Amino acid sequence: MIRLAPLILCAALGLAAAPIAAHADPAPLPVPDREIVTPITGDPGLGDDVEATYVRLHYPSPYSTTAHPEACDWIGYVRYRSKTGPAETAAADAVLTMQPGTFSGPGNLDIQAPQVVRKAAATGKHVEYISLQRRSSCMEDRTGWEAAQQAGDYHVAADYYFRGATVNGQTYHYQTPQDLAFLGDYGLALTLDDWRAVIEHVLPDPAQRTKSFCGGHSLGAFLTGPMMAWNFAGDPAAADYAGFNLCGGGTIPEDGLAMTDPAGFSGTGLLDQLMSAAGGAVKNAVDYLAHNGLSVAQLPVISASELLHTYNLAAMAADQNPDAESDLKNLVPRDLRTEPWMRAMYDKDYLDFFTGANLPTDYRVTNTALLGMYFDQNSAEYVMQAGLGFYDCPVEGKTYPIPNGLASVPILGPTLFVIPLRVGYGQNYTPASHDQLCGWRNYDQVTPSSIDGPVLGHGPATDQDHEPTDIRQFAHSMNPGWQPVNYFEEYTPIRLVTDTAFALGLGRDGDLAKLQYRSGGILNFLLHGDRWQSTPAGKRNLTLFAGDSPVQNAALAGLAPYNAKYLPGYRHYDVVTAAEKQNNGLPEPASSYIAAFLTQG
């Protein structure tokens, strides 16, 4: 989950028409040859009625041609089902396969998944929610997290990942870009083919796939369009191998968009071919870099794995000992691998960007409050936000990146906030004192909602209408010790992001040539009167936007479907992390929308 990629993709995304009858039977595509199933325990969110299992499939990818560890020949997913439902996925009433976002793993979806299953079961329908684990997780070292969970002490993990300690005869090896060069193979074609392999594994009969739905959050939402538009056999007439038939029930993008050709080049004939070829040349250069040191965001300055280890450690501490004073500042080194990111995300003012003062670990805070500082929408900048509650101590407003009182500036303030930019600007705070221990009020312990609500720069910083996620549940979900899958994907392949941008913009050649079912888009609208919006044609679509997330601004360009649903008071993470019990007494809306969508006739 670090989710700036969806904002880039908004500028470049398109799909397809109704199913085309197959005129020949292409050679069968490869499928997994082994399955390992492991029960998941230790998640209170499952309750007594939902079962979760971790499923691993042995599936060497035909797209992974560079030498790689054997562990990377496996893919996985978490399967959530009602205990009163059928034992076999194929017998369920509906099956939703979900792609997580950038730097996110299946653990990122484990708050929403049981809610969807439970709400569907309450109507007499049995649905399965499958959260996918992308192949690049094969390179993650879970040794320290598992040992820390067993010991009940997050310091064990800190010693392993940051201090060179040995656990069970093993020490942590920092993965260099050279170690990860093979991840340059892990682009859109590989990711979508893995998705296909999972769907065919759980629903082997093509006739069953009318109840197959494909969804995703953030970057995962943007992958749903290419998935629907993809022709896996390379033959446009091979209907069984068309993505829109593999996902025959429709798409569910969450705080993102299912698009196939937003520019609308598919209706321009020769121009489309020329633009694809020109873009393809650029794509080849980008792919070359991906195979030579830029496969993931694992750089000498700002290293994704070390940042995500820091977040994981904060979550484990908040889960294990929520009210104790945080000592993370003594456990995580401040160096070039993490410091630039922390300054860019959490500064109090612009001087802090240069001095490194007033960062979260510079304050006396509880473990829960530190996690809140990292991810709450009244502390974190940009898109990495959820409504988790608020500080339980005196606070003062930030002036970075935009002062809290900007909205009150005549002319400029009201003009700026006409457009719902809502990326955390204008209402961010930090503890007022470095010396007073600061705690955290959970989402249901903040100021009650009023008719006026929080006003930028005035009055209360937040209220219960803008705090949907239980920070205790959030911490447990993010804790990597108890679950066999990752919450954060340490090594999200950069090529997956660049391939998606090329496929939905320019450069649909080579292994992206299978994006064959495109429709709509701006040029196609201007030339042929086709739809301006480029969602997958001929299929149902449930688009969910966080009401306070910048991604919703895609609607200003006419890119959002007319029937998109907006979740008031939600931030980017809240769409998949919101608590089942909401402050307004109503059912959590995102999971309610999804359950209803899956179970409609």
Mean pLDDT: 89
**Count of helix runs:** 18
Question: Termini separation (Å)?
Answer: 33 Å
Q: Give the C-alpha Rg.
A: 23 Å
Give a count of the beta strands, DSSP E runs of length 2 or more.
Answer: 13
**Which consecutive residue ranges, at least 5 long each, have pLDDT under 50?**
1-23, 419-425
Shape: globular
The percentage of residues in β strands lies in 5-15%
Core attributes:
601 residues; alpha/beta; 7-stranded mixed beta sheet; two-stranded antiparallel ribbon; 18 helices; 13 strands
Describe the protein's architecture and organization.
The protein is of the alpha/beta class. Helix content is 28%, strand content 11%. The chain is built from 18 helices and 13 strands. The strands form four sheets. Strands 1-2-3-5-4-6-7 form a seven-stranded mixed beta sheet, sandwiched between helices. A two-stranded antiparallel ribbon has the order 8-11. The protein has a two-stranded antiparallel sheet with strand order 9-10. The longest helix is centred in the middle third of the chain and has 21 residues, at 270-290. The radius of gyration is 23 Å and the shape is globular. The protein starts with a helix and ends with a helix.
